[in-house]
């Protein structure tokens, strides 16, 4: 089967009821789709993605992350708040310090899958 790029319109409109029915059986609810779109928006900022990568292997405090990224503590705190609200990171208090870590392995998997996908696309463009 050949797939064409930039072919968003049907040249001869024809409804394929069987395909529509099949696709609709796997379609999540509108609420879940909305929540999923909001979740992925969190990855739409490179600073937040950098923070997530910084937390891949170890917990870090705001000072550590700010130093690593060359950003202000205020900016990092703001991004961490958003990441925490979306349950991508969690915090642990140790005395006066608060350390952040990825909330679970799913976050690591999402980052790795996205990077792998982009790498394959890049290799596909340049490797042939």
Question: Layout of SSEs?
Answer:
Elements: H1 17-25, H2 30-41, H3 46-54, E1 60-61, H4 62-69, H5 73-85, E2 89-94, E3 97-102, H6 105-126
Antiparallel strand pairs: 1-3, 2-3
Helix pairs in contact: 4-5
Q: How would you describe the overall organization of this protein?
A:
This protein has 128 residues and is mainly α. The protein has a single domain (32-126), classed as Winged helix-like DNA-binding domain superfamily/Winged helix DNA-binding domain (Arc Repressor Mutant, subunit A), CATH 1.10.10.10. The protein is built from 6 helices and 3 strands, in the order αααβααββα. The two termini are 20 Å apart.
Tag the structure with descriptive keywords.
128 residues; 6 helices; 3 strands; 57% helix; Arc Repressor Mutant, subunit A; three-stranded antiparallel beta sheet; single chain; mainly alpha
Query: The biggest beta sheet, please?
Result: 3 strands, antiparallel
The percent of residues in helical segments reads: 55-70%
Order of strands across the main sheet: 1-3-2
Helical segment count:
6
What separation lies between the terminal Cα atoms? 20 Å
CATH superfamily: Winged helix-like DNA-binding domain superfamily/Winged helix DNA-binding domain
- Shape summary: elongated
Helix and strand pattern: HHHEHHEEH
> Would you count the extended β strands for me?
3
**Number of structural units classed as domains:** 1
In CATH's first tier, which class applies?
A: Mainly Alpha
Q: What share of the residues does DSSP label as strand, in percent?
A: 5-15%
Q: What structural class do helix, strand and pairing data support?
A: mainly alpha
Which regions have little confidence, pLDDT < 50, spanning 5+ residues?
A: none
**CATH architecture field:** Orthogonal Bundle
CATH topology: Arc Repressor Mutant, subunit A
**Mean pLDDT value:** 91
Measured on Cα atoms, how large is the radius of gyration? 20 Å
């Amino acid at each position: 089967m050949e797939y064409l790029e930039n072919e968003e319109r049907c040249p001869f409109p024809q409804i394929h009821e069987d395909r529509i029915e099949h696709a609709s059986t796997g379609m999540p609810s509108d609420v879940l789709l909305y929540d999923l779109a909001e979740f992925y928006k969190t990855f739409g900022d490179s600073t937040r993605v950098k923070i997530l990568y910084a937390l891949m292997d170890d917990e870090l405090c705001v000072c550590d992350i700010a130093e690593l990224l060359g950003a202000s503590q205020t900016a990092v705190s703001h991004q961490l708040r958003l990441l925490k609200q979306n349950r991508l990171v969690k915090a642990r208090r140790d005395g006066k310090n608060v350390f952040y870590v990825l909330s679970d392995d799913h976050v690591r998997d999402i980052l790795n899958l996205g990077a792998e996908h982009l790498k394959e696309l890049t290799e596909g463009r340049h490797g042939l």
